[in-house]
Predict the structure of Carboxyltransferase domain-containing protein.
Amino acid sequence: MSGVDVEASFTWLGDSALVVGTPHARALLDELRARPLPGVQEVVPALHLLTLLFDPLQSDGATLEAGVRARLLALRQPDPADGAARTLVVPVRFGGPGGPDLGWCAARAGLDAAAFVQALCRTPLEVAFLGFTPGFAFLTGLPPELRMPRLDAPRERVPAGSVALGGPWAGVYPRGTPGGWRIVGVTDLNLFDLSRPEPVPWRAGDRVRLEAVAGRPGQGRP
């Protein structure tokens, strides 16, 4: 099994954190979750970056960096058809009061609203990383024709559950916050709940599919 290109950058944050920059961050994350390196307590993903938090009493910097390089050398590229990744289906009510920007986005893409929704729902998305606010996932995979520019001026408040497009990303606002993305629909999924064993339902590497549904706001919310 051939490995991937091992080119990577390594940046130290004090004596207990190592930032690894690599285009193969997703595959490396899966590898480190499956077979943790000694002393590593947590791996935090970002776009093309992984931050390894480790116990300096259990591993030294040189050993950890060598371990990461070895894993990269042995790494295989993830197979898009691999069934190991989790898939989350997000039911969305597109348009209407909960999706005020749907018509604008459809027109920009040269489609009517129904065709635009169908295109979004056919697009396989993936959680690249989480950030901005607890439970907010940056979803990658939008083709160029479905990518939308952010608003010139952010809204003061975007309602919880809003499904939105911003640049190359899609996302769902877990709670009411300011936001500058184009809102195309709303979901009743609760994306941040501290009473659950896993407060956030998704993590980096998970696959996501949007599904158009009918219904009134508030129906089916966990």
